[in-house]
Design brief:
Elements (H helix, E strand, L loop, with lengths): L5 E5 L6 H12 L5 E6 L6 H13 L10 H14 L2 E6 L20 H11 L5 E6 L4 H4 L8 E5 L5 H16 L1
Parallel strand pairs: 1-4, 1-5, 2-3, 3-4
């Protein structure tokens, strides 16, 4: 059975992407052998992030991952194929260029695109959930083409929905 390999939770800042990813992880963690949540807020280079993830999946802080990012990716995909892992990466926009170069990576962070492509298209039993304000180009071109890659765009409340929500909360709490 093929599960969704890559889920992008996309939306503007403050819309609740991080909260949703945490809640999602808590609710489905029993379907996975390993659950790992990492923030990309400080924009760790992939060759720094991957060894940390590999050690966490192996449940062994002494594991010595390969030096080469390509070899690290291969080892990660081997782990993801052997173990059912849920990997949540928060703040994906931190490795993106932003501005008019939507979907492009900051200089030196292009290997994240390789990570997303390989996780999205390689056969394994795991799932990567990525939260971001920006849709990486590898994901943007794949949405709709592959059931293994999904995007959940989060949008804010309309004014009418917000008024209804607030009025219900007011009357339910004070009525």
């Amino acid at each position: 059975m093929d599960y969704c390999h890559l889920v992008l939770i996309l939306g503007i800042g403050g819309v609740g992407k991080t909260s949703l990813s945490i809640k999602l992880g808590q609710q489905i963690q029993d379907q996975f052998e390993v659950v790992i949540w990492r923030s990309l807020r400080e924009a760790p280079p992939l060759d720094v992030l991957l060894p940390d993830i590999l050690r966490a999946i192996a449940s062994n802080p002494d594991v010595q991952p390969p030096e080469d990012v390509t070899a690290q990716l291969t080892q990660l995909l081997d782990y993801l194929g052997q173990n059912r892992c849920l990997l949540i990466l928060d703040n994906g926009e931190s490795v993106m260029q932003g501005g008019e170069q939507t979907g492009e990576y900051r200089e030196g962070y292009e290997s994240y695109g390789v990570l997303f492509q390989r996780i999205g298209y390689t056969s394994h039993k795991s799932c990567l959930v990525l939260t971001s304000r920006e849709n990486p180009k590898e994901i943007a071109v794949s949405i709709g083409d592959s059931p293994l890659i999904q995007c959940l765009p989060l949008i804010g409340l309309t004014v009418e929905t917000a008024k209804t929500f607030v009025s219900r909360a007011w009357f339910d709490g004070n009525g």
